[in-house]
Amino acid sequence: MDTIKESVLLDGKKVSATVSVSGLLQWESETLGWHENAKGAVDLREDVIGYSVGSSSIVIHTFVQKAVKCWENSKRVERDITLVFNSPDSQQEWCNVLQRFYRNAGRPKRLFVLVNPFGGKNKALNVYHKTVEPLFKKAGIDVTIRETQFHRHAKELAKSLVLSEYDGVVCVSGDGVLTEVLNGLLERPDWEQAIKMPLGIIPAGTGNGMAKSLLEAGSEYYNQANAAFAIIRGCKQPLDIASVVQGHVKCHSMLMLSWGFVADVDFESEKIRSLGSLRIDLWAVIRVLWLREYSGSLAYLPATESDIVGERLSSQEQSLLEKSGDSDRDTDYRKESNWRTLEGKFIYIWAQNVPYAAEDVIAAPRAKFNDGSFDLIVIRQCPRLKLVSILLNMKNGSHIKSKYVQYLKVKAFRLTPGGIVGDSIEGGYVDLDGEVLARGQGAYGDGSRDPMHYGPAIDVNVEKGLATIFAPARCIE
Ligand SMILES: Nc1ncnc2c1ncn2[C@@H]1O[C@H](COP(=O)(O)OP(=O)(O)OP(=O)(O)O)[C@@H](O)[C@H]1O
């Protein structure tokens, strides 16, 4: 039978209710006639966390979007709907329909949850217990929770995870812990299997660009409850991943790589960390006043015809490129003929996988989760005042309209960072998903014993949809 119908008490009122195998619960009052509250409906797939069964009742835990101003994504609110049945048989019949529906809905049943107790303002544990745990409980999810105890602990845990025991790994943290899990999975001997494990993120760090990008793309209000609900709903989005190789160092990125101004501000301002988020603004002012330009080169493989700017590679550059990087993975772009190069002075180069780099920074408004490319934002020579306006406009993404910004979608790139123009030291940092990948001589002591010294060129290859991430339904590309 596709639909069952029953006369029940719904929140104490007599209604005629139906539930269909396609997941729609509808009701109509048997006493109110055409009164505005006489009818109702709820979509079991889109708007329900789960259900629980009482002695003669079923409680449906709904999580429905509240209508707000049209330009805002609306918040969801929890509301329980209690259905009381006349007989144990009809209750059982309804339970069977609900059970069958949720068994086939692709929702996760067993999750491995990692919480970074020091993420953001040390509030991640509180976020988990207050907001996330109650929702997972209502959804009937079995949770194994681990607090990360040290830097890169999440990576170790991902490396040793028993894959068959979980339907997903969820990080209650910033983007850093999520990236560690990704790298742990990809460093396993069984990485091809391991990387199919769906990942989830509940924003509880300082940098929450991935969670913001997912919720925004799904037209969901940005908060931790909605992020948890996206995981409960079980929709999954393939996510591009960049493999990054510099000499012997090999790792993976899901968010961003930057070199120059932006990375320098981020890392150099660590000295004034006690000032909180103000540290970034203050250091940005310092760096604008004492603006650095770096010499270097960027070779890249355009993703589309309109991303072709710059010169073709010389035959020597092309042959160097073909010997470089990583040949382990499926996608190998090194021998493609369409590579281009930009050389000279740069203020910054920023490669971004998803639109948001942080909650309030839309670094790459055209970025897509699964288009097989990273978006490059390149600033070369630029007057100081224009640079300030570009930085301010990153809050709404309009910086890409500036004539000083080159915005390119690329499938692969090779960055050769050089020194500060007009200075004997190299200086600047290369930031990979919030961690130092490399730094120029002088960025750390005299640089002679710095293990992260710039070294050889950095090769980045985008692997289309290599990872899988839980995402709001409307975000799926
Ligand atoms: N118990 C711990 N002690 C010290 N460092 C930890 C611990 N757990 C996780 N970390 C490290 O904290 C870093 C930041 O993690 P997370 O992703 O939660 O936040 P973030 O937004 O990237 O940064 P922030 O620390 O500024 O909030 C990661 O590099 C991770 O390895």
TrEMBL record:
Q: What class of enzyme is it?
A: transferase
Q: Which Gene Ontology cellular-component terms appear in the entry?
A: vacuolar membrane
Task: List the InterPro entries.
Answer: ATP-NAD_kinase_N (IPR017438), Diacylglycerol_kinase_cat_dom (IPR001206), Lipid_Phosphate_FormReg (IPR050187), NAD/diacylglycerol_kinase_sf (IPR016064), YegS/DAGK_C (IPR045540)
- Which residues does the UniProt record annotate as the domain DAGKc? 106-248
Membrane topology per record:
Peripheral membrane protein
BP terms from Gene Ontology: sphingolipid metabolic process
Which keywords belong to this entry? ATP-binding, Kinase, Membrane, Nucleotide-binding, Transferase
UniProt subcellular location: Vacuole membrane
In terms of SMART domains, this protein maps to: DAGKc (SM00046)
User: A Gene Ontology MF term for this entry?
Assistant: ATP binding
Enzyme Commission number: 2.7.1.91
Q: Which domain of life is it from?
A: Eukaryota
Query: Which PANTHER family does its entry note?
Result: ACYLGLYCEROL KINASE, MITOCHONDRIAL (PTHR12358:SF31), SPHINGOSINE KINASE (PTHR12358)
The protein here is known as sphingosine kinase
**Organism field:** Riccia sorocarpa
